[in-house]
Amino acid sequence: MLLTLLPAFLSLTLVSATSVTVKVNKASVIGNYNATTGVDAFLGLKYGTATRFVRATGVSYTTSTTINATVNAPACPQIQGTNSLAVNYGIYGTSEDCTSLDIQRPHGISSSAKLPVMVWLHGGALTQGASWYYPGDGMVQQSKSIYEGNYQALVSYAGCNGTSNTFKCLQTVDLSVLINATNTMYGQPYVYGSRPWGVTIDGNIIPANPAILTAQGKFANIPVIAGDVNDEGTIFVKPQTIATDSDLLSFLENDYRNRNATFFQNATSIASLLALYPDDPTLGSPFGSGNNTFGLGEQFKRAAAIYGDIHFHWARRNFLTSAVCNGNNAWSYLFNQFTPTSAAWQGVFHTGEIPYVMMKFTPADGSYYTLAQEMLAYWVSFAYNKNPNHSGNPKWNQYSTGSNMMFSINSTSMQPDTFRIAGTRPVDDAQTVNTEDNSPNIIFIVRTT
Fold this sequence. Notes:
Elements: H1 2-5, E1 13-16, E2 19-24, E3 27-34, E4 39-46, E5 66-68, E6 100-106, E7 116-118, H2 137-143, H3 151-157, H4 166-172, H5 175-186, H6 210-215, E8 224-229, H7 245-255, H8 267-276, H9 300-325, E9 330-335, H10 354-357, H11 367-385, E10 403-407, E11 413-416, H12 421-430, E12 441-443, E13 445-447
Helix pairs in contact: 3-5, 9-12
């Protein structure tokens, strides 16, 4: 569906100083031209149908019509975020008709240009997010090459229990009722096990547990960049008042309640876990912050270290190891740059590297802008050459060497992949499986023909 749209945006006709139009089959699509950045943007383009709980089908644009692609599309209906990354993604409205995409491209390119295409799938585990929050214009401006549950509970809260066809009821119930039911579920103590819009193994699109598929080598043999930030777990710890071993275990058990995981369900595993992660704030996350507990619970940093290791650092290392065994060209990174606009307790938190790759800095930001330029060059080179290495940047070795590129203002350099390795080994030993979409950030490339 997506690729059928993109080739048409390789040629343009000027409409005015601030707009451009392209033909997609029989449809005329009008977008914005920003003369300052030199970027054309086509916003809110439909890529598929949008019927509740029905798989989307592609849009063919076979009707002679004019499409206004100059404004951001509504975000999908979503739960109300409660962690420190919570954003009002609905500033342009929310709607079930949200199968849309934004395309940014360099201005003035010819119809014969064969540009690489980078596809950005925003995070949020299918529960939060919108395309407008990380627009691709910053990348395009500089690179001139990048384009950018619990079913029964939901049935109950939506008032569909007792109906002859609960699924049909969920398809047709008023949207406000469905959203209220979702928010009620999300407010329950078992929040991480009760994400009604979260990733689901349906036997078709997602045929089995991704961790099992990865171990079996059942994934595409394409080049990949995968990475983490240092303090992946800080923003996911709720409540932040965790103060005792009992609080800590309750948090972890709730997180795994609906995952059929056994890691936290026997005394031996629990004892091993507590020994591996001592109740010592100097060892917790944010790492390197000493005894500072930031006014939070005494074991908040302990919980953040465990969460980050299990959900992210293990997932990255496990995936990359399988990718190398599968013959994929793979590169790994760790991002370790605190941004002053962040709260101290967050550390170098989940998604902290994205503003750098997406070039949300300006020359006025000094060394932060320089780091962003460096990272952007790697990603653009990857889009062009399926290899991130770029002249003028330090060489980025493949993960087959067992090393990561460490990004920070002070140094961008290769380092052995040993960060947090002790905390991830028990996951391998226990064969704990994570089916949630808390995955490392993975960039993949598709190309127009």
